[in-house]
Every structure is written in structure tokens, then in C-alpha cells.
Amino acid sequence: MRALLPPGAAMLNEPETVWAAMLDGWSAQQLARNLSLSTIVSRRRLAERFRDFAEEYPWAWTVEQVDHFFMELRALRGGSRSTVLGYQNALRMFLGYLTDPTYGWGELCWERFGTHPAQVFHEWNTARHVQDAIGEPGKRPYTRNELEDLFDCADERVVRIRRAGSKGWIPAFRIATLMKTAYAWGLRRNEVRMLDLVDLASNPQARQFNDLGIVYVRHGKAMRGSPPKRRAVLTLPEFAWAVECIEEWLTEVRPLFVAPLATMLWPSERGHGASPIAADSVSRAFNEVKREAGLDDTLDFHSLRRSYVTHLVEIGYDAFFIQQQVGHEHASTTSIYTGLSPDYRARVVNDAIARMAHATTTDSPKEN
To answer: Domain 144-338 adopts which CATH fold?
Structure first.
């Protein structure tokens, strides 16, 4: 704090100068914790948003302002539970920084404004994070029929656009193949869009997949300020069809609009393919296909990953293997993603009944 506001420094607009220094100090603290720049920027904007809503500086924030801010976020803006939780955690951390005696903001505010920042985000007025992933009721995996409809619609769009003589068929082909890749390897949106050609490798134990036996994820979800988590995802026999889709993309379509030395698997149209397709572009294109397929609005891009987990469980893969494939730290997170189909549950029950009947018949004493 002293480096940002030397003692006795003259200020033209004292409250605004202190406020700006608080934000700069918090940003520096988060940077020292090795958080990503995007996280720091989004948290800083959130603090500014709350300050504008409260029309007060942090040393005058109250619990009533917290209630009203999140009431508006939920009731008027339709904020999800996960959004509310994320916002509350970020603002709680900001005030935790300001109220930490180590940084001296409380003492400075008392000297200059006759008051000091106080923690106004408590257990009794904020959401509680009780699990690693928040399962919204509407969030579920696609059924196999829904997946077929989604992918068929994506392929039909490519054919329709190409027949019309438009170059738009190439981006349509890109999103169709990207969607299939996300499902066939259980990838998050950012993980799949950031794939590079060097992330595709052969698996000596599965040579039938050529150079697509392993997909190396270098941009996995970061945890607690750590760098992006990396993992290797094995290509499974059930998804051999997806290997053919990527090979078609690589050999026949991708070369039509990228520079020879570009290495991104899903290059953007800008910069001759040197940069990856933007996250917003993925979401926008995906939603267009989903709406055209007539699927439920609650099904999102992440539901492709939920479908991957669910279908591996139904096929019979080991739970720990599935957890490693999708990069979950805890098995409980993987279980949240699983939404077994009624047909599968019925089959499990029928198999159990058959085993019990067989055991009863085998164990029953024979009559003399």
C-alpha cells in the first residue's frame, strides 16, 4: 500500500485515488499468486461494477448493498447459481485483501475518511460452495438420439451451404468436426478450441488410429492459481468414427484456408490461421446448429463432455480411468457429470434380477 500511496501524498480526488490504488494493489496481489491475467481483469471489473451499483467506496459498503446487488443479478438479469457463487467469492476475496492488516488499507482509510473497509460477505448472506461442480437441474448429457440429431444437422448445414456456392461451408465443416471432437475425447470448450497439430500423437498400443491415438490437452482447467492442467486423453475404439472426421478435416478442408506453417487445429479466419478460433465464435456457431436441430435450450456445449462421461460409464469403462480421461481431480466431480439413460438403468436392474434368479436356482437343494 505504501508503494501505491506514499504517506502524506497530495491527492486531488482523494476517494477516487485511494480506490484506484486499492484495485492496483489487489491486482498485484493476485499476480503474485500466479493467477491468470484474464482472471485478474474480470475480478477487477466485477469490483468496479459493484462499486458503481453501491455508489459507495469499499470503506462504506454494507450487507444491504450485497443483498440488493445479488437480488438484481438473480431476479432481473437471470444470473445462474454458479455465477452468483463466483461473484460472491471474488468480492469476498477483494474485501479480505482490504481488511488484511498486512496491507494497511484499514489504517489509511481511518486516517483519511474516518472509517475503514469491513467484510460484508458472510456465510449467512452468500451462497455456499458444497461441491466441486454445481449441477443445475437443466444441465444433462445428450441422449444418443439427440447427439445423432445434432451431428447430422451440423453435417447437413455443410452440404447445404456448399451447394449454395458459399465459402461459408468451410467454417461450418470446422464447427461440425470440432463438436464431434469435443464429444469423442470429452473435452471442454477451451480445451478443444486450443488444440494444436502437435497435440495429436500416435498410440503404440492402438496403431489403428494412426496419428490420433492420443490427444494431449495443454489448456486444461487451471486450479487455485496454478498453470493450465495438462493431460493425455486416449482415443477409444468406440469413437473411431471421430478419427476419420478429423483426418478428413486435416487432409481435405483445413488446407483450403490456412497458411502452410499454421499449426492450430481449428484456426481462425484471421491472420492466415495463426490463431485459434475464438471461444465466442465456437459458442455462437454451436448454438446455431443446436437451434436448427430443435434441441432443448438447456443443452449446451459442455453437455458434450457430460455425454462422454455418461456413455463411458454405460459402456463399462472403469470409473478411475474415466476420471483420468476427463481430468477431474475428484471422483465425485465425475459422478456429477453422469446422467445414465433409462434404458441403461433398466438393463442394469434386469441383469441383477437375472443374476439373483440364477444364484437362487443354483444354490437351491436338489430333491432326492
So the answer is: hpI Integrase; Chain A (1.10.443)
